[in-house]
Amino acid sequence: MPNNISDIIEQYLKRILEESDVGVVEIQRSELAELFNCVPSQINYVISTRFTTDHGYVVESKRGGGGYIRIREIKLDPEHTLLTLLRNWPSELSQATSEALIERLMRESWLTKREAVMLENMLRREVVNVDLPLRDRLRSRLLYTAVQVIATYDNEDH
Amino acid sequence: MPNNISDIIEQYLKRILEESDVGVVEIQRSELAELFNCVPSQINYVISTRFTTDHGYVVESKRGGGGYIRIREIKLDPEHTLLTLLRNWPSELSQATSEALIERLMRESWLTKREAVMLENMLRREVVNVDLPLRDRLRSRLLYTAVQVIATYDNEDH
DNA sequence: TTGACTTTGACTTATCTTGACCATATTATA
DNA sequence: TATAATATGGTCAAGATAAGTCAAAGTCAA
Question: How much is the average pLDDT of B67-81?
Fold first, then answer.
């Protein structure tokens, strides 16, 4: 069915991702581009259109010698709790709302008690003390990033 | 996974450091360079990017005949580590410095791996995306708060 | 023929590698 | 003992490597 390079690269990456049973794939942009005879930035296009958090992936990368692009799958529970949460993430978060969210995540065992306390304190307005509405946007990005991490990294302590 | 010589040399040195249970490793620059087939100054690069005081290491060296480079891992007094750290907290923190600090706290078991990854990601400039120098001040406050929590909240790991 | 999606490439940023030249300590020699 | 030779390590800037951004151009279906 795939009739363009982007679709082909997408399928390729998803196949590799399935074969790696840890849900992580690491590639070199230029290498992959060469494999599919396209310009390197095409890889960025594929990633930014098909491997977003909406799609259930988190991407990291490093430039320079020995650089890479790493794609991780978001871990799914039956309810797709974290994926759903990330998909509908609000662009602004008040302190009260973020605290409620953190409490909920802790109740559902996504966060340890200590992580929850840490996040709650970090997101207090005295700490994130920039002017509104920037503050609420910043708080949103911070917690979003934290949730992204718990969605992709296993916590060996629990 | 390390795809470049610098990472490999870093891992090598850290392994040697662990094996030597006094937390000290002494090398000869040219010898090490030869071992990894690189120019001697590459060793300096590795040290200056991965074994700084922020990372929790002290490096001494001597030139001339019988010269050496000695890397010492500095473990702070377990009783007062975090309090001392908090007392001398810098008002601004770059991304590189905060990453070094987080890595160090993890090495000394003050942070779990997941907490460390979470904090590192939250403190990235793309996330804390306000203009400098505000960004570095904000990063400082955020990490300060996190460390404060792990200092007061003695979790099950300690 | 318009609009969404894809492809391309010029330019930017980040990180690592290399080498020429510099500084300092030890050892040999006058 | 002074000085020269040798043996190390240090600095820094240029070059190499690799990913990111963005906008212009191309494609294709409705």
Answer: 87
Q: Please state the CATH superfamily assignment of the domain spanning residues A5-73 in this structure.
A: Transcriptional regulator CtsR, winged HTH domain (3.30.56.130)
B148 and A121: CB-CB below 8 Å? yes
The C-alpha atoms of residue A36 and residue A29 are separated, in whole angstroms, by 11
What count of CB pairs under 8 Å joins A to B? 92
The single residue listed with the structure tokens 């590189």 is B96
Residue A33 CB-half CA count within 13 A: 14
Contacts of A157 in chain B (CB under 8 A): 112, 114, 156-157
The neighbouring-strand residues paired with B73 are: B57
Footprint of strand D on the protein (CB under 7 A): A 27-31, 40-41, 43-45, 59, 61-69; B 27-31, 40-41, 43-45, 61-69
CATH number belonging to domain B81-152: 1.10.1200.150
Is B43's pLDDT higher than 70?
Answer: yes
Average pLDDT over residues B96-105: 96
Share of residues in chain B with pLDDT > 70 (%): 96
Q: For residue A53, how far is the Cα from the chain centroid?
A: 5
Task: Give the integer Cα–Cα distance in Å for B34 and B40.
Answer: 8
Domain boundaries, chain A: 5-73, 81-152
